[in-house]
Amino acid sequence: MSQFALIDELLPETVRIAKASVPLYRDLYEGRMLDNVTRLVLATLPTITKSTIVSAGAAALSDRVNSDYFQNTSGSTGEFLVLHRSIEEQRFIHDFFGAIQASQPPSSACTLFLGLPSHGSATAIPSSGIVVQHGIVDDRTAENCWAYLTKGILNKHGLHRINTIAGSATQLLLLTKYLSSRGLEKSPHTVPHITLTGDWLSRRVLEYLQSFWQATLIDRFSCSEFFGGASSTYPWREFVFDPTTYAEIVGLNSDSITSTGELCVTSLYPFVQRQPLIRYRTGDIFSQSDNGFVFHGRRGHCLFGPQGELALSGRDLYELLDELEIVERQSHSLAVDAVDHSVSGKPLVKGVASYDADRLDLFLKIWTKVDMQWFPKGRKLLQSRIEDGLRRMCRTSISNLVIEFAKAGSSMVLGYDKAGVIWEYSGDKQAIGRLVSKWSS
Q1: pLDDT class for 147, splitting at 50, 70, 90?
Q2: 305-439 fold
C-alpha cells in the first residue's frame, strides 16, 4: 500500500471525526456528505485560515477545553500550532514527572528539567521533590546548568543535589557540547537516568550522549513534538507506527505556507484518545511493507521525483549532517559546530533541490563559524563527505551537485535561481539539529 493509498483510506474517518468533534469544522462541513472523501474531494472542501484559528482560539477546537492544558506554540516547524491535550495525555504528562522522582524520597528528589519556559506544556508538575526548569540559550545559561549539577540547589530546606535530568533532547545536546568543548566532565554526582523529550535524535547522537553521561537514556520524543504516532523501540532501533493513528494527512487545498494549514485528528503515541490538531504544511510519509509501516520522513522534508516517487528524505539528510557534526566537525577542528553558530538564529545549512525532467540538481550552501577559504583541506574533506553521503543515500541519481561555504553572519542569499525545494538545517540554538523545509514559491 502506497502512502497515498493509505491517506485516501484514512481520510473519510478523519474528516468525519473532525466534523463531529471540532466546532470550526462542524460549521464548515454542515450539510456535506463525507462518506467517501478522497484527496480530490478534500481539495474542494472549504479551508480554515491561520487567522481564523488564532482569532477563534481554544473554542475552535473543542467544546470542552481546559485552558490549563491548551497550548499555543511555534512547534518544530516555526509555524503556529494549536494543540488540545486529551485527558489521557494530561495524566501521562503529570505521571511522567512523578515517575522521574518516584525512586527518591520527596525531600531528596531533585530534577533538572531542561527546557525553555516559553515553549512547551502548561501541565502542572507534581510538587513532590524539587524541579528546576532551566532553558539553555547561551553560554551563561549553560554555565548555570553546570553550577546546578556540580553545586546543587540551595533553598530554605537546605542543599539538594541534582539526581535526575529530564526535558528537551536538544537542550541536553547543547549542554553536553558546552561541557565537552570546555573540557568539563559531567556532574561528579551520579545521574542514573536521563529522560528525553522533543526532537528525534539519530542513533549516533544518542550514543554520543550516553557515552558522555554514562546514564540510562529514556527517549520519549514522540510524546512531545514528534506527532503522528511514532515511537522508537529501546535502544534506538526502528520506528513503530500504529496504523490506527491518524498522522497529519489531511492537507488543505493551498500551496501557501502561511495561509492555510491542515487538520489532524490523532492520538500522540502512546495515547489512545484522539484529539484534534491543526498544523501547517507538514505531514508524515510512511508506507506499508512486509515488516509493517516504514517511515520516510515528513512530507515537507521529502523530495519527490517527477512521477511522485520518493527521491530524498529529510531524515536522511538530517542523519548525514548529524554524523558530520559529531565526527568531522570536532575531530578536524573545522569550527562549524551549530552550538557555537548563529546568535541570529540563521540556518547553518540551506539549499535548493530541483528537477528538470529526470535531472536532479542539488545545491547546498553551508555557513560556518570560520571562513573556510582559510582551511582548504578541511573544506575539501567536508565537501567530499557531504557529496559522498548525498549520492549514496539519494534514491535518484544526482546530475549536478554544488556545495558552497560561507562565513556565518554573511549574506543568507543562496545565489541559486532555479525554483525547487528549499532545505534548511537549522543552527538556531533553540532548535539545534532540526531540519525544516519550505516549498519555494
Answers
A1: confident
A2: GMP Synthetase; Chain A, domain 3 (3.30.300)
